Amino acid sequence: QKEVEQDPGPLSVPEGAIVSLNCTYSNSAFQYFMWYRQYSRKGPELLMYTYSSGNKEDGRFTAQVDKSSKYISLFIRDSQPSDSATYLCALPGFGNEKLTFGTGTRLTIIP
Amino acid sequence: DAGITQSPRHKVTETGTPVTLRCHQTENHRYMYWYRQDPGHGLRLIHYSYGVKDTDKGEVSDGYSVSRSKTEDFLLTLESATSSQTSVYFCAISGSTDTQYFGPGTRLTVL
Fold first, then answer.
1. What's the gap in Å between the CA of A103 and the closest CA on chain B?
2. What string of DSSP letters covers B32-62?
3. Residues from chain B contacting residue A10 (CB–CB below 8 Å)
4. How far apart are the first and last CA of chain A?
5. Residue B56's closest CA among A97, A12, A18, A44?
6. How far apart (Å, rounded) are the C-alpha atoms in residues A5 and A104?
7. Cα–Cα dist A45/B19, whole Å
8. How many CB pairs under 8 A join A and B?
9. What is the tens place of the pLDDT at every residue in B18-74?
10. CA pair distance B78, B66, nearest whole angstrom
């Protein structure tokens, strides 16, 4: 079993829809959770970072962590064509110097 | 891209030839990483460095070596390139052991 599982998609939704992106993980020792966004032919960029269970909101983006289920989600409200990208979850391991990435979900927002 | 450059940005080479990719940072960050990104596999860590001359292996290190003689430069060498090493290579840096910032990537094709 992979440490982090993520549905690769692709996922296509109409503009304005709410998008839900998800990852599951197997190691309960993970304490911090990140989402990266990667535009086509670019490097990943950090989108959100959360330490604890519950929700963290940043504009149209909400990161949700359920440690009891080992499940993390990223919600995008009022999705825009500029949100079209691949979204990767990332979990720091012991000592935090290494990240374990999900495979990424490719998202397309249709105008 | 957080003061990170990668060179070359594109390279085509032949099987059996040595290849060196360079990552240069202007942030004076302690940690530097090399990843490869392939469809279906996401980002996989090849090698990383936690200081000058201090390096360690990642999950896909076979066939690769690294060197870090200065804080700002991290070199990735493919000793004898194979077609399975055709990929997009990303360098990342981190100052605080968890958040990583990525470079623009190098597209390598091994014929």
1. 4
2. EEEEEEETTTEEEEEEEEEETTEEEE-TT-T
3. none
4. 37
5. A97
6. 9
7. 27
8. 54
9. 999 999 999 999 999 999 999 888 899 999 999 999 999 998 999 999 999 999 999
10. 9
